[in-house]
Amino acid sequence: MIFLMIIIMLGAPGTGKGTVGKLLSEKLGIVHISSGEIFRSYVKKQGEMGKEIERYILEGKLVPDALAIQLVEKRLCEKDVEKGVILDGYPRTVKQAIELDELLAKQNKKVEIAVNLSLSDNDIIERITKRRTCPNPECREIYNIEFKPPKVSGICDKCGTKLIQREDDNEETLKNRLKTYHEISEGLINFYKNKDILYTVKVNIHSENTSQDIAEEIEEYLEK
Ligand code: AMP
Predict the structure, then answer these.
(1) Residues 40, 92, 132, 140: which is the catalytic one?
(2) Between vectors from CA 123 to CA 28 and to CA 53, what angle results, nearest 5°?
(3) How far away, in angstroms, is 104 Cα from ligand 1 center?
């Protein structure tokens, strides 16, 4: 049993961070936290902050560091994170990574491994535009109408909720999200490479059972 494992999932949108992160969280018995999910939950509430966040998401831009750090760190101080966490989509900037290290250091913790999922932009576009998501916050299962369709079209296999296409999963917003990703990813990847905790996995969306395979590969790596 691995205790106090802090795992970062890096990678462009659509590389499978969410799916692999959820599988790993089940395997390791630690909580999976997605910064995108945190922000979407504020958007749903439609307060002033939610409306501001929504504008960034729909433009394919990052939520400004100060706000992103404040909201994610608040979540990281909750009780269920004590045993460890899979952080999906956070940090996204070097500033966030430095702040995260500082927060963890105060609790005598550190990031164990930063998993970097890599996939070509063409495959990302193919994957994301066909992605369907379960909006049930307790479930959040992710499907792909070509590679991983639900048994009944448009319905979540796990909880029966009607699946949605995320508003930012359209080609226009996606192009901006990829542009944003390429602008900032190198610095972040180097940040973890320099700490010698970067683990890169090349994703192949055309092979079967990819996310399961990747989660198993990472689990084996962690156990070594
Ligand atoms: P995701 O669900 O990870 O694809 O994130 C969806 C959107 O939420 C992104 O395109 C950003 O607008 C925002 N977002 C998610 N994580 C972060 C982060 N760590 N920093 C800033 N913005 C973020």
Answers:
(1) 92
(2) 70
(3) 21
